[in-house]
Write a sequence for this structure.
């Protein structure tokens, strides 16, 4: 690890939604956005931080479309899993163009483009400095990619789950729809569930709560925020057991 300020975390899992990859476009992948994300990931990789990523697929397929097309929920979820593979491949290319070794790891079997998820192998990739991109969610319908992110973070023993969003953190309501809200600096898993806050689904929060997985919700659109989070700067919202700042990092 390079000299200078010490990162707060050794191993992170970054959750990137499909919407994060489309930027301001109405659909698909915005090349400039993906390149920006890749360059920021390169900066934290250079610090020796082990990085895993879970991709969403909402920029290509969402449940509302499935309802309009009269597609049953299980089939729609599998379609969404395929969308995450597309996003994973795009992100992999961008990262490798920045000189980062990567492994695309899929919960669904797609031998031509990704290796299957094997927990010990994924951890070994991280230990060797490779960026691991998890796609296809959990491989099961009825589970979101947020739940997949919590599950994979726990399985690889990540220090924290970083939930990248388009807002500054967690609010009592959607700040894009309601004005004058106050942002939480810290909030407990239980309060998240009790308030039914929609930043992450309840299964992901419950799984994190049971395993004391720290979650940081932050604004990805602000340049440099990934670095600020891993260095322990006070941005976004920390989700933990007590709603207090018990984030110990690696200090």
């Amino acid at each position: 690890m390079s000299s200078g300020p010490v990162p707060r975390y050794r191993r992170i899992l970054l959750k990137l939604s499909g919407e994060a990859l489309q930027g301001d476009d109405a659909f698909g992948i915005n090349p400039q956005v993906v390149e920006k994300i890749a360059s920021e990931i390169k900066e934290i990789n250079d610090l020796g931080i082990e990085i895993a990523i879970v991709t969403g697929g909402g920029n290509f397929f969402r449940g509302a479309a499935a309802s309009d097309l009269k597609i049953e929920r299980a089939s729609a979820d599998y379609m969404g899993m395929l969308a995450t593979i597309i996003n994973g491949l795009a992100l992999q290319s961008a990262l490798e163009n920045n000189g980062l070794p990567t492994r695309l790891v899929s919960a669904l079997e797609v031998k031509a483009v990704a290796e299957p998820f094997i927990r010990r192998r994924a951890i070994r990739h991280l230990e060797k400095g490779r960026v691991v991109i998890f796609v296809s969610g959990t491989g099961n319908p009825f589970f979101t990619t947020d739940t997949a992110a919590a599950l994979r973070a726990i399985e690889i023993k990540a220090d924290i789950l970083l939930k990248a969003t388009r807002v500054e953190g967690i609010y009592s309501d959607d700040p894009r729809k309601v004005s004058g809200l106050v942002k939480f600096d810290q909030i407990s898993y239980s309060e998240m569930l009790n308030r039914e806050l929609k930043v992450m689904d309840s299964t992901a929060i419950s799984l994190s709560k049971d395993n004391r997985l720290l979650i940081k919700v932050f604004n990805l659109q602000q340049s440099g925020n990934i670095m600020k989070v891993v260095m322990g700067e006070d941005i976004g919202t920390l989700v933990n057991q007590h709603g207090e700042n018990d984030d110990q990092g690696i200090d």
In short: The CA atoms of residues 22 and 30 lie 5 Å apart.
